[in-house]
Amino acid sequence: MTFFTVERDGQPAADHHLAPLAFAGYAHFTAMQVRGGLVRGLDLHLQRLRDASLALYGQALPEDHIRACLRAALRQGPAEVSLTATVYSPAGEFTVAGPDATPALLVRTSAPADGPAGPLRLASFQHERVLPELKHVGEVAKTWYLRAAVARGYDDAVFRDRHGRLTEGSIWNLAFWDGHCVVWPQGSMLAGTTMQIVRRQLQRLGVPQREQDLTPADVAAFTGAVVMNSWTPAIAVHGIDTIAVPPAPPFLALLRQAWKAEPPTAP
């Protein structure tokens, strides 16, 4: 992958800044697509960084500082990039850092991405992420189950919790369509920024939505399914395990309409 820039707290990152992250996993991040210098759901990304920093470190970086770092990184590349902002503690892992250990922000930009074209077929695995509400690093299980799914002849993985409920994909949120209502899985998972954007815009559009406990067996009752993340609001899913899901172009169009209704803003 080609990176346009990698900066720490608004300045070019040196090797000694990057080395702790290369050998550690106590950090969190948010990923966004920048188009024309603008980002959809910037408020959600900033809130994600704040909430996770308070949970992991007991303190959060000022929003003005984060915005300034994002702007500094964006000045080093084209107007359309993928951007990842990672917050970590200089104290590293296996320590109880005090209030003097101010978190640091690492920002990198790379080529823009739109995700796979789809449709996808997903294999389900029983797995529950640690601290699922946080977008944290070091999650070897995501890639492990992705590789296991591909080895079975599928495109990606989707997770079942201990109760057998579908929750989320390896790097995706799930959404289903019953012909009238958008149905979101219920359970412990990461509330993706794209999912939050789509949900609030669907509400403004007056589209019915509900949360529901969903097992793989329930999938057969739906007329459409998608995965979504920072790359895209809708990639069609045409099967989970051995259960087929029919194509649903109007459902995908609806989710994309909701996504486009979110006004992009500058950091």
Task: Detail the topology: elements first, then pairings.
Blueprint: E1 3-8, E2 11-12, H1 15-22, E3 27-34, H2 42-57, H3 63-74, E4 81-88, E5 104-110, E6 120-126, H4 140-151, E7 156-160, E8 166-169, E9 173-177, E10 182-185, H5 193-205, E11 209-212, E12 224-229, E13 232-240, E14 243-244, H6 249-260
Parallel strand pairs: 6-7, 6-13, 10-11
Antiparallel strand pairs: 1-2, 1-5, 3-4, 4-5, 7-8, 9-10, 9-12, 12-13, 13-14
Describe the structure.
There is one protein chain. The protein is of the alpha+beta class and about 270 residues long. Helices cover about 25% and strands about 30% of the residues. It contains six helices and 14 strands. The chain has helices at about 15-20, 40-55, 65-75, 140-150, 195-205, 250-260, and strands at about 5-10, 10, 25-35, 80-90, 105-110, 120-125, 155-160, 165-170, 175, 180-185, 210, 225-230, 230-240, 245. Strands 6, 7, 8, 9, 10, 11, 12, 13 and 14 form a nine-stranded mixed sheet that branches. Strands 2-1-5-4-3 form a five-stranded antiparallel sheet, with helices on one face. Helix 5 crosses helix 6.
